[in-house]
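Shipment paperwork, digital attachment
Item: protein structure file
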Amino acid sequence: MRECSLRIIGRHLDATPPDWRDRLAARLGERPRRLGTWTELALYGALRCVDDAAESAMPADAVLRLCSRRATASPTHQALMQAQDGLPMPFTFLQSQTSQTLAALAGRLAWRGDAVFLASPHAEDAFALACQAAGPTGVLFGVLEEDPLLSHWVRLIPCEPAHADVVGDAAATAARWQTLLSA
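Attachment content:
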């Protein structure tokens, strides 16, 4: 594995507050339309992280990685239940597609680049993979769950190994993710 020296420049690791949808609408200047809860939650956390990094948009060559244990299981289940009624494919089906979430993130981050969704019960391993995939302008990494509501994000950029708040080699990265979450 290659050396991964990245500095954390933004983070959103807070618990999801009850008014998170209102905060998202205030940040966007409008209520999101035709997006599922999972996608709105992704936007909420990612935008807070990018704001913390003092970035107005994601650089084109940055990578985006999103990890979830259950992903869009809830909207997928709802779509399948609605489809049993013999109606045309419900709108909920679109909300169950992780590609819709990645597209919404790209649109709101004013970014077009390398985005990947990883379904994994091990966020620390996904974090290590994200660090390895980081481009010349870094990575935006998120862990998203709908039950319970969770939207944790970090924004990392390449740096010199001696810099403070550095994520070290890939082997140490998993431990770093656990440290971030417990901070």
